[in-house]
Design goal:
By secondary structure, the chain is an alpha/beta fold. It contains 9 helices and 9 strands. It has a 7-stranded mixed β-sheet with strand order 2-1-6-5-7-8-9. A two-stranded antiparallel ribbon has the order 3-4.
Amino acid sequence: MQYRNRAATPAVLYAPSWRLAPAEPRPEGNSQAMTQIGSREVPVDLRLTVAVCASSELVRRGLGSILDDLAIVENDIYCESWEQACQLMSATPVDILIIAEAGYGSCQLPDGVQTKVLVLVDATDLRTALKDAPPWAHGFLARQDLTPTGLDEAVRRVAVGKSQIPARLASELIRRAAAPLPARAARPAKLTSRESEALALLADGLSNKQIARRLSISDHGAKRLVASLLLKLGSPNRTMAVVTAIKSGLIEPSLM
């Protein structure tokens, strides 16, 4: 496992996860000042510990070269296996875990871990990408969009709980949603008109506060709406709620 604290030293340190020094206490909450990166607004003032899980050294080095260019990354850690990643997340705070390879769909996050997960998917093989997508993922990024700007945007959005789905993946989900459902397939969740409005805003990547302003309701009311959506869609987070909604045909292509 490779561990690097940029503030302490530019050198790469090697240590098993259980010997890593505890992270410095962080101030409560992250600044929500926003800036425009690519096509979306993303938070400005973030300092994150990011871990990469990939068995290939070439993949780890490639992602490392991109992470080097991201000002938001304070510490970067590289794991060769899911077992190492789980040991790491259980032993020290990790903000974002980037899963860089397929085959983790059946894995489970350790109990109590608050790490948010960004999964790299192959936009040229969406069938495999959808099959292998972990149900607990917080966001997806197409490998074809893996640039410093693309990764910066994706990491920032996932860090603050916004949905992150590549356009190619969303289009494939929409195409599948248009296909007839098998006779025994589960039917789409029945949403209220207010929940449908909130779902459309959720798919557009809006936060609870932004949803509250758009719908002219309180922040608490927006939080309740989003919680109700997650419950009805059987989703552990906002991104997977959007994925489920697209699969079920609850979101029209024009809304993405």
